[in-house]
Methyltransferase domain-containing protein
Amino acid sequence: MLTVDFTRFPIAAGDRVLDLGCGGGRHAFECYRRGARVVALDRNGDEIREVAKWFAAMKEAGEAPAGASAVAMEGDALHLPFPDASFDVVIISEVMEHIPDDKGVLAEMVRVLRPGGRIAVTVPRYGPEKVCWALSDAYHEVEGGHIRIYKAEELLGRMREAGLKPYGTHHAHGLHAPYWWIKCAVGVDNDGALPVKLYHKLLVWDIVKKPLATRLAEQALNPLIGKSFVAYATKPHLPHLPDDLTDGTGPTADAAA
């Protein structure tokens, strides 16, 4: 189940992609299938080991084209172990709502993204997330849980402050918001409740079969109750300095003298 729309955020063969806070690896796997050179990074060692197994299985099955590569590694989003401008693309999906220093994470992503590179950020959408918080304290008051709810303009503002230039947004997973409302209403850990079990079967069926009826229903629901807000941005190129500022004769040189 992808949150990033790769028709709006295309990945080219050979792109250097960082999936930051990759979790189970869903976006990393898709980028690998598209021929990218992928690094999937997460602080959860168990998930990283599982992602590495799937990368190996995909390679064995020939699911990735020649030239593609994939590495899974543990790491800290606030201290990325990469040089500046290491990646063409950075994806961070459903992660920033967990991290106290979200500005620090944005700064690190911008640092490792090359000028002209692109970034995709997804977070829970304000309205559906507020309903979950209202229905259940257990939904968010857990270790490592959600610590904030973003309004769209708030997230876009933080991206701009970090030096990014947003160019597109949309909502995703309209069918999933009611599922989480039901879970919050009956108890987030009560997966045996009949409404939860029935709705989960519907979602699994939709993901596996992709029937036209649910695809159309989700398209209609996304603008209204889409569970995720998705924002795309670029890192602008540095402005070109006039020759007299770079040849040692201009004001910059005078100031340094």
Summary: The chain has ten helices and seven strands. The domain at 16-173+224-237 is CATH 3.40.50.150 (Rossmann fold). The two ends are 58 Å apart (CA to CA). The first strand starts at residue 16 and ends at 20.
